[in-house]
Automatic annotation (TrEMBL), chains A, B:
Keywords: Aminotransferase, Transferase
Source organism of this protein record: Saccharopolyspora taberi
Domain of life assignment: Bacteria
PANTHER family registered for this protein in UniProt: AMINOTRANSFERASE, PUTATIVE-RELATED, ASPARTATE AMINOTRANSFERASE
Name of the protein in its database record: Aminotransferase class I/II-fold pyridoxal phosphate-dependent enzyme
InterPro entries: AspAT_Ic, PyrdxlP-dep_Trfase, PyrdxlP-dep_Trfase_major, PyrdxlP-dep_Trfase_small
MF-aspect GO terms: transaminase activity
Length: 424, 424
């Protein structure tokens, strides 16, 4: 990422960046690139949900969806998402409105109960640690932090987490109980796990008998290009490798239909399912089946999900293309930045020179452009190189996004050239 | 409850009971009095919800209900239930579809985090115990059992739990961290707490600094007679007594609108609210606000809830009256039973001679009438006197209910007279 500039050229570039930044600051913008929220236009695509299920009260099997019961969720909705999430319908549960809640609850139940294969409750063990591929998703890390689970960073490669590191850590340390994975169009890099990564995750030897892969397949159907990436089926691979209980699959319709009022899913082995259902049975008298029926009527089948996601893509693709275009036009060849070109998902990762990310985010905020805090992509908010910035292009309108991206690249140039100048 | 019968009279009554039971068994009934589920006709009252919120996407403050966010729930819905649940709207949260989930989660957060006023996490304490007024709600007891929380039974009186016992236990034992209360139309006795009970709960001295009253106000608006029982405001009483953080108030619309797709509420002091919101923020990106908006549009205001509950009462009252009528006609004056006459809620408690409840339930099941297992009203399913049977009249149709009640009273006569005969 480093290219040599003559002292004159550097001075000129820095001066231009300063002028651009002054002009940017003078515009008094108020733009937000922080979170992976769908834009209102994306939500509009699902507005038919607002009038459903109209006068229908019963699921296909005659269940009155308005009453208590059915801890597994509606079979017909589980059928639709079985294909999307690569989990057999009988091993998939349709639950509440948030997959993050399900991940939280799986941690809680593992801490306060005994997981299949575990020797004791996690809360009774001296140390519990999770592997955290970095950069990763801040809300995963926040759950570990909240429960005192130690986080061990693992570098991401273009094939997923560095499996040499993962295999070594899980083999030697029985306190390593889990790993966070966003296997397709990963948050925030956009990386999809290679088949080899998936098969190594399934087959690796773990010192902990109760090791779990938290497989957060949040972007399973969220393509941005004609190349619809498919990942290998981890659940099947684990079973084939003799580790059937290794995986918890999570997914949701939050970024398919309504972000606040979708349906979340949990898929796993029969033993893990029995375990979660037994815990859920103490906690709940069943999920909101009316909302599940609503989703069945609206999405119809897996093909319906794919058609719907094509409409989502039509709204998102121009935004992601603008991000690439502006990064290339303004930072290409400067040696100040690298960035990912995701084929799906919700994020672009921008890598700036070491020690610059926090300052870029600070300068952007001063100019009215709010970014995800630098460091959020790492455990405890601490990016040791201070180099990673997560860009979330989905929520702003196209014009706002383009303005924000121009502003962001200005800040990168300003901070990057200032650093070079200081070092010169 | 004991009346003397001559040996001849007893033999005659027993013979009559045996004949009635044989006739009952021959009918091959299949009836279910187990759970407090609303009947389909009750759910029909809320069917307008099925087509809402139609084309409305925004809450009163402009929030897009379809997107992420708003951990407190919609202000306009919190306003409606503030009156119903006796909690100021700013201290009331509107959350998911189940208040049981909220109780579970409060236990989890107290076990794995530090409650306001607590010295440590409950999981780090040697013993944690809850007072359990009996008879009580089996799902409360199941939560304690699941988390290894010791349960200490406290007898119910017609004014609520025996406060002399409660005050003594909480004063002398710092491991006593909580008490389960269903303060209005209690499950299963129908008892409503007197003002004196409420003020003693609020003012009592507890050895535990982090003692909490789990105030499950499940039947706040669920009247069955013209006398609409009001209970004292515990939250205000606790604040007045200098114990502002003592109470967690729970409620839901499950038995107001849809049992599976309602909205649950949590009310408490500002410190407890901050604590729960901080925990929820790690777990969730907000509740289903579309469903909350749906409820606002359907219920409109607290008066709307009252009108709606009058329609619920019109459906439930004939069922509860039939239960009383049949119990009185068949068991009145026999000395074999006592029962409660609830003015609201979902249950009637039937007390049979000591040692008879399990056998009554068994005989009823053999005749095709399923009752809540005897003992379910007590911690660990163990009613030491084996005398308490919970009757849930809401779900069956009127004819089925009346048949089931006739059958039940037959079983009580059979088992009761058999016991007398054996003792004679």
């Amino acid at each position: 990422m480093t290219t040599e500039l003559s002292q004159d050229t550097l001075a000129g570039e820095l001066e231009r960046a300063r002028q651009d930044y002054a002009a940017l600051a003078a515009r008094g913008l108020s733009l937000d690139l922080t979170r992976g929220k769908p834009a209102p236009e994306q939500l509009d695509l699902s507005d038919d949900l607002l009038g459903l299920p109209r006068d229908l009260r019963s699921a296909a099997d005659g269940t009155d969806v308005r009453n208590y019961g059915n801890l597994k969720g509606l079979p017909e909705l589980r059928e639709i998402f079985a294909e999307v999430l690569q989990v057999p319908a009988e091993q998939l549960l349709a639950l509440g409105n948030s997959s993050l809640e399900l991940m939280h609850d799986c941690l809680v139940h593992a801490l306060l109960g005994v997981l299949p294969g575990a020797e004791s409750r996690w809360v009774d063990q001296e140390r519990v640690a999770f592997l955290c591929p970095v950069p990763g998703y801040d809300r995963h890390f926040a759950l570990c932090e909240r429960f005192g689970i130690e986080m061990i960073p693992v570098p991401m490669t273009s094939d997923g987490p560095d499996m040499d590191v993962v295999e070594r850590l899980v083999a030697e340390d029985p306190a390593v109980k889990g790993i966070w994975c966003v296997p397709k169009y990963s948050n925030p890099t956009g990386v999809s796990y290679s088949d080899e990564t998936v098969s190594r995750l399934a087959a690796m030897t773990t010192a902990a008998p109760d090791f779990r892969i938290f497989w957060d397949n949040a972007y399973a159907a969220h393509h941005l290009t004609d190349e619809q990436v498919e990942i290998a089926d981890l659940l099947a691979a684990c079973e084939a490798a003799g580790n059937p209980d290794r995986t918890f699959v999570f997914g949701s319709s939050s970024k398919i239909t309504f972000a606040g009022a979708g349906v979340a899913f949990f898929g796993s082995s029969p033993a893990n399912l029995t375990w979660l259902l037994a815990n859920n049975a103490k906690r709940s008298i069943g999920p909101d089946k009316v909302n599940q029926l609503r989703h069945v009527l609206f999405l119809r089948d897996a093909a319906g999900v794919r058609e719907h996601m094509a409409r989502q893509r039509a709204l998102l693709q121009p935004k992601f293309e603008a991000v690439q275009r502006i990064l290339e036009a303004e930072l290409g060849g400067t040696g100040l930045a690298r960035w990912t070109e995701p084929k799906g998902g919700y994020f672009v990762t921008l890598e700036v020179p070491d020690g610059c990310a926090k300052e870029v985010v600070r300068r952007a905020a001063e100019a009215g452009i709010v970014l995800t805090p630098a460091g959020a992509t790492h455990p405890h908010g601490d990016d040791p190189r201070d180099a990673t910035i997560r860009i979330a292009p989905s929520y702003p309108g196209q014009d706002d996004l383009e303005q924000a991206m121009h502003g962001l690249t200005t800040c990168v140039r300003l901070v990057g050239y200032e650093q070079k100048q200081a070092a010169a």
